[in-house]
Design goal:
about 240 residues; alpha+beta; 6-stranded mixed β-sheet; 3-stranded antiparallel β-sheet; 5 helices
């Protein structure tokens, strides 16, 4: 649920959804919440055809017609949902704050969170970590600091986190001066490719009209994902 803003050499602003390109809903309770977001203008249905590109035959295959599975996107960006949640009653948002340590307070049944400077950021009933690097030794390699979460007190949790797969990838943000008329879909996965995973046309999503962003051109923006572990170094 993330979006990147870039400015071209001619000063035009370009938007790329470099995280999840869209989401679908299968749970009725979640669907009710999504419909609330939709009525509030936070999300909209992305009515496009998706498919796959067969790298061997160099043809687009398995084209899914619009309407088979509803696809939703944030408006005007995938981060609109997160922004709205930050303004919910009772929610206090802090930006630009680095977390240096999580600590479980057994006597209080609470999490204690400290900043990189050691100052307390508060005590909480729950903590949500979006990346397993909070417990990974790699955290020390990158930051020079120990991982924020010490799992010596919870070895069972350490085993579960170790089982979570991690597949590093690159997001390729591509802008073209003209629509790619040779591509019959607005999003597709790659078949028989060890590197490329998928590509989607960001400009085709609701609230992301290329004409709105670049009033003097007919450009189109695409985002593609490539797996870093499978990219071979040159030479």
């Amino acid at each position: 649920m993330s979006q990147r803003r870039e400015t071209s050499e001619d000063g035009n602003e370009m938007l790329f959804d470099h995280g999840a390109p869209f989401f679908t809903v299968t749970n009725n309770d979640v669907l009710a919440l999504v419909r609330e977001w939709e009525s509030g203008g936070l999300v909209a249905e992305w009515k496009v055809n998706l498919g796959s590109f067969d790298r061997v035959s160099k043809k687009f295959v398995n084209i899914q017609q619009d309407g088979m599975n509803k696809k939703y996107v944030g408006v005007p960006g995938m981060n609109s949902i997160c922004k709205a949640l930050c303004h919910q009653p009772g929610v206090e948002s802090k930006f630009g704050v680095g977390v240096g340590r999580f600590e479980w307070l057994e006597d209080k049944n609470l999490w204690s969170v400290s900043g990189l400077d050691g100052q307390s950021l508060g005590q909480f009933n729950g903590v949500v970590a979006s990346d397993k690097n909070v417990v990974s030794p790699r955290f020390r390699d990158v930051t020079g600091r120990p991982p924020p979460l010490d799992l010596t007190f919870a070895p069972d949790l350490a085993v579960k986190l170790e089982e979570i797969p991690v597949n590093p990838c690159f997001a390729l943000m591509l802008a073209f001066s003209e629509p790619l008329s040779s591509i019959p879909v607005k999003g597709f996965s790659f078949q028989d490719s060890e590197v490329l995973s998928w590509a989607h046309c960001d400009s085709s999503k609701p609230g992301r009209s290329a004409n709105r962003l670049c009033k003097d051109c007919n450009c189109t923006n695409w985002t593609s994902k490539a797996f870093r572990s499978n990219i071979k170094k040159g030479g």
